[in-house]
Amino acid sequence: MSISTTIKSIQDVMRQDAGVDGDAQRISQLVWLLFLRIFDAKEEEYEWEAGYRSPIPTGLRWREWAADDEGLTGDDLLDFVNNRLFPELKDLPSGPGSDPRGGIVREVFTDSYNYMKSGTLMRQVINRINQIDFHSSQQRHLFNDIYEKILRDLQSAGNAGEYYTPRAVTQFMADMVGLKLGDVVLDPACGTGGFLVCALENLRGEATTVAEREQLQRSIRGVEKKPLPHLLAMTNLILHGVEVPAIAHDNALTRTPYRSISDRQRVDVILTNPPFGGTEEPGVESNFPADFQTKETADLFLVLLMQLLKEGGRAALVLPDGSLFGEGVKTRIKERLLERCNLHTIVRLPNGVFAPYTGINTNLLFLTKGEPTTEIWYYEHPMPGDRKQYSKTRPIAIEEFGPEKAWWHDRQESEQAWRVSIDDIRARNYNLDIKNPNTEDPSHGDPVKLLAAYRQRLATIDAQRNALRDELASALERTADRVTRLAPVE
Q1: Which of 33, 171, 268, 372 holds its CA 20 to 30 A away from the CA of 183?
Q2: Measured between alpha carbons, how far apart are the two ends of the chain, in Å?
Q3: What pLDDT, on the 0 to 100 scale, is given for residue 159?
């Protein structure tokens, strides 16, 4: 049975339970169970190390209460989970001197709950989870698909400005940002950890010694403020070999006062898709300089990004069209960005890349901090000829980025690529929403030509209206003369 089929069967079982209300609770329930199963699988690997000791108390490890398909069930299982498993894992020691792996388990269970009321149905769920082989590298790779399926079930995700990034996009951004071993990589809005996993996998082959592998694990960092994505990110990184994921459960926009961010906190690379289309809670913007205060989340993350990067640091991020052409605070932010960073590339994505979450047009921005922008290269990613738009069943594929990768280090203007000087950008009042000058947008056309055509049509309409008015007036006048002639003489 495939992983996706197994997960679907688990969700079908949960729908029968009276205590689980809606997709959000089903997913939360599934994720803490998967976490314990994955943690147990990783512990089997850690146990090959001399002296390894589990941070989970005796009797609470997955293998001790869940691995046997004929084990605890019914009320006994429910009592064990509610009155022993959760209380003891939530109370694991944390802080200096404690096992950091235990701190991870405690952090996961602090925001988790058991919603199921039927121990019999819970046993069915557990038995299905036991069918997944988490030691298989192929299964680990496919587990990313499970995250995407889980997140698609949360159709309300987009209402909060959260748009989970297709793996092809995260992979392309990680490939082109210039990662190298020793870089500290951060995603300040990491969601389920997709960018961090791509960075980890890109650099894993360069880490050939134990010291380098340990350094790599310490170099992958993230921040996520919402409990469910945070738990998914932790599980995802553990599954990919990070023993103690450095994923803070916090809001990066308020975690550290903007002006207090020190060199020690700055990083070499930022890969991120900050939430857009949403707003932060009142007061968040007060953490930023007065000129850059706004309620638009994506803009605040762009300001934060400039502060978090080291000199010479690189970044790749996703931004909506609105951040490119917006005025007011957006203009001031873009002016600061182009003064402090070399925004060397903007890849314009076609519509539907983020379906089903949003139809908003998006862009991939690549920049280096420490030198001003002199020109920006644009590359318009074409929609494949065999479709009109992307969908959740036919998403964007990494193979489609082949032309961009071939062009990247030998840039020439073409039907898809063009460049714009900083002088032209200043003349446009820092409007970065620059359409491809080499092709007309078939859905809209060139704005200048459209305006001229519109004015011509107005003139034609006015001329026709005036001609019709004159003709009606003439006809009325002729009718009046005829009536006068036919009138009897008294």
Answers
A1: 372
A2: 106
A3: 43
